Amino acid sequence: MAVGIVAFGAGLLAAALLSASEVEQQGVAKLREHGHLLEPGKQAAFEAAQDVRDELREPAADTVQAVKASAQGATVAAGAGDPVLLGPSVGTSVSAWRQAYWDRSRGWTAS
Q1: How many angstroms separate the CA atoms of 100 and 25, rounded?
Q2: Residue 80, C-beta contacts closer than 8 angstroms, at least 6 positions apart
Q3: Whole-number Å distance between alpha carbons of 89 and 78
Q4: H or E element that contains 49
């Protein structure tokens, strides 16, 4: 992954240092002249993106609620007050949690 990032950075640097070719400059000039012709397509794409956003908003919210409910159900099923399963809670030191985990893993119980 690091190699890809370095290659990408090198490409950006090379592109910044090289001047635009004559063909690229001509293309930019034509785009500036006729850019108004792109407006209808640009507007249609913007409206389509808004429609997709509006259509997906409610299903996404429902999915978030389902994940929250599932997480809460898993917490209750795991034993909400069990420090070994859920880790240290407020008022429980990490060392006490580690000791409880150590004892439980060996089958020992608190007396």
Answers
A1: 71
A2: 86
A3: 15
A4: helix 39-78
Tokens of 62: 């429902």
CA dist 42 and 29 (Å) reads 19
Q: How far apart are CA 111 and CA 103, in angstroms?
A: 11
Q: What is the pTM of this model?
A: 0.36
Residues in CB range of 60: below 8 A, 6 or more apart: none
75 contacts 86 by C-beta, under 8 angstroms:
yes
Residue 42 has pLDDT above 70, yes or no: yes
Count CB atoms within 10 A of the CB of residue 83.
15
**DSSP type of residue 91:** T
